[in-house]
């Protein structure tokens, strides 16, 4: 084992997340990070914007969506993410066998979930895109309850039936997998053990140094589901003991040079991958500001990252073609750093195809 500090862990995670060198494309970014959380489409796209070295535009994203390069599926923590199509089989092997809250919810409502899934499947096979309102009509008078937080659509996604079509500001259409893949669900191996080992290894390769508690938080899976898989890959991982916790990284993947200060400014969006992927919040943020970032009901604020440190949160207001940013600082920020934040706000406004009206600090 080699020495590793908390600051070193922080800076390695930032670099591995794609915030320093970036990935070659949005597809490569989503693949490496094992999905981009995107229940709020614009913030999922902001996460991609910060991590692709060749640049990202809204038109470019629209072309990727139209070509099926990225789709929306439910995965980790039963939340919707942007994934590549080839991720679907793995998600199915890992999550479909589990009893989700959706099945229990349907039982409480006296609804046959499998019957509903069959109806949705048959409808989605008949046309390229199916409107959310069409699915609601199919589900009948209890549609609103059945579609709460995704509801039956979660099960339709996990079982390999339909996906949500990425669209801003929010999802309106769904589509059957047959329109973008010739593989049938029956052709999938259903190799739960192999898929879980791969899932674990990829997590540590992307988000490590990380702990098993971190993986549990990120995946939304209980220990008994993944511990056997962990033992299967343990010899392929290098362990670091820091402050009584065991951190893991793939053997040979430890670049200690990445422990240096990350000199950059980023306006990270809500639910950024760095904030949903670890159980321990203290690795990245001063715990006295924890409630300013991690809100109730699972909401995570957009944050200001300056040279590897969180210096506050931010929000924006759009009026027509104008956008104004308000930054809520955690303590003071130098004049030069405020200028850097304004430059980054200008860059982000350009990505959102808006004119920067103002950047204020509170």
Automatic annotation (TrEMBL):
Keywords: DNA-binding
InterPro entries the UniProt entry points to: AlkZ-like
Domain of life: Bacteria
GO MF, one example: DNA binding
Pfam families assigned: AlkZ-like
Protein name: Winged helix DNA-binding domain-containing protein
Species, as recorded: Listeria booriae
